[in-house]
Amino acid sequence: MSDAVPAREPAAAPPPQVPPAGAPESSGMTSIIVAVIAVAALYWAREVLIPITLALLLSFVLSPLVNLLRRAWLGRVPSVIVAVILAIGIILAFGSVIGTQVAQLANDIPQYQTTIEKKIGSLREATVSKLSYHLKRLSRQFSAEPAAPSAPAPGAQARPGQQGNPVVVTQEEAPSVLQIGEKIVTPILNPLAMAGIILVVTIFALLQKEDIRDRGIRLFGSHDLHRTTMAMNDAGRRLSRYFLTQLGINTAFGVIVGTGLYFIGVPNPVLWGMLGTLLRFIPYIGSWIAAALPILLAAAVEPGWSLVIWTAVLYVVTELTMGQVVEPLVYGHSTGLSPLAVIIAAIFWTWLWGPIGLIISTPLTLCLVVLGRHVEHLEFFDVLLGDRPALTPVESLYQRMLAGDPDEAEDQAERFLAGHRLSAYYDEVVLKALQLASNDIVRGTLEPRRAGRLKTAITELVEDLGRYDDVDAPGGNDKTVAGSTADEQAIPNEHSPADGAPDKSKLAPEWRGEAPVLCISGRGPLDEAASKMLAQLLGKHGLGARVVPHEVVSRLNVQSLDVHGVAMMCVSYLDISGNPAHLRYLLRRLRQRQPEASLLVGLWPEGAPILKDRDLGRTVGADYYVSTLSEAVEACLSAAQQAEGLKPRLLTAVGGA
Question: DSSP of 235-262, one letter per residue?
Fold first, then answer.
């Protein structure tokens, strides 16, 4: 029977919602475990992963050369072979020159021993002469004391009752040929094995580049070929550009240093130039390590200190010029990594893989950031290590207002207004931040007290930004005063309308008053801030406006609304959805109160239903519908300039209806 098992039997009820509540904790714990396993695998498998990583990075360096050779119709395999042979030749030539220079320096070191001893002696006499005098006195005092009884010599006869230790003489066997070979071969076996792995993997990576790319696309997401292809291309382009640019800059650093040392007179300038090129691949400390050795050598060559000073000045000036001028210009002011991320990455990879990890820390971190920008599950890499702002300007403004930091919000606004007009900042940042706040109010996450403080902060920000014009000016939006500082460059301009303001003498009488536009706030708690922004912008374009709160246009108070000299009424809404009956009745009341005025509705959330449905717009009954403050200002200016022949229209959509 159907009644045998009731539909709402307690036994058939779903279990308690414990698993969903613990799901985030379980997911977080799983992520931590996966991260620990990944780091452990990177550490224990470093003997294999280091040469493979070096080979893949080397393939990015050689890839542009291979592409160039392939465009010269050499074919894929010959192009790869030529590129690899050329790279090996350069490396061997580099190593042979360095080895020759080191051998020459080793032969010349005894010549510098006397100079070093003299300088050490002069420093000792100048700085620690008194200290050495007291030390000598103390040493003489200790030497004058009776010496402690010494232990009996090993061959002395033991006293009666004491038994001497037996002496066993052993003869070491001569090492065999295998042992000698092992001592000689073992130190060079690991470097040779690593070089062989790097060579083989590099060749196959260059030969199978397209296949590796396709497998990466399949691995990271074949369902979204566009995004995955963009990620792969971005990674390859960034890495190749980074390596080639870094190679060029470091080579220039080495050439400048070697040439400078040659003219200064430091021995072996070729060696120091090459070491400077190689060591500068180590971020932050490489160039200073390269500078330490020639500075010490300069101190050993000349009895004076001028050579040391000139050598130090050469390295400091060259490094600062390369790091602070050349690299920002070449990299476009950024490699995509934050400075803190570069330091942390250098520490992490050095701890994990040693000195090689320090050298390749920046390109490895750059790979992670590129993946984070294109792979959703790895986005945290871009957030933690990338140089892009963690918050959008909209989110940043909302956060500053919630945190009660209006000064930081105004500083952000000034940076934005340096290249944009005021209406653009209101449309692209402030209105969208207000929309976030409005959504939080609707959800109940933003309590009325904090909403009131946020409204006050936004109003104060709008008032402070009243000193900016709503115009596009070359070099920024600030009005500057001759001789003023950067902190005093903006001046009020409420009485200087923007270009294109209508000539009031040519307008209809209803548009010539002090406030022909009435900005009416919607029912939301933050709609009044939007109305104040619109009124401010209209004033900058030569049209006076005043703000009216929503309470004044309610059913009970609308008859007391002052509509004298009003030619257009603008209603602002931050949140409206469904069938806006309250807006329709509000417009009906306003139409009855002032039949001759045009009605404009600003629906600041993009994609409001009225902007999409023309029939719904006709039913609501406004003359203009806009979605941005710029469109609202344009509609008011257009209506003012056409006022003489203006007749009420059922619907004229500006920007989307």
Answer: HHHHHHHHHHHHHHHHHHHHHHHHHHHH
Please state, in angstroms and rounded to a whole number, the distance separating the CA atoms of residues 368 and 645: 63
pLDDT in tens, 229-281: 776 776 677 777 777 788 888 899 999 999 999 999 888 889 999 988 888 88
Identify each DSSP E strand in 435-551 by its residue range.
517-521, 545-548
Alpha helices in 13-75 (DSSP H): 18-44, 46-71
pTM (whole model) above 0.70? no
Q: Which H or E run contains 127?
A: helix 76-127
Contact 342, 362 (CB under 8 A): yes
CA-based R_g, the chain, Å: 39
Residues 6+ apart with CB under 8 A from 473: none
Burial of 213 from C-beta contacts in 10 A (0-12 / 13-18 / 19+): middle
Tokens representing 446? 């933003």
With helix as H, strand as E and coil as C, how does 168-195 read?
CCCCCCCCCHHHHHHHHHHHHHHHHHHH
Number of neighbouring beta carbons within 10 Å of residue 250: 19
Please say whether the structural domain 497-657 has been given the CATH code 3.10.450.50. Answer: no
Q: Write out pLDDT tens, residues 476-501.
A: 444 433 333 333 333 333 334 444 56
Query: Residue 91: phi, psi to the nearest 5?
Result: -65, -45
Domain chopping of the chain, boundaries: 27-108+189-207, 224-385, 390-472, 497-657
Residues (pLDDT < 70) of the chain are: 1-28, 119-182, 185-186, 220-228, 231, 234-235, 331-335, 375, 472-506, 576-579, 605-617, 643-657
- Between the alpha carbon of residue 274 and those of residues 161, 291, 310, the distances in Å are 71, 12, 19
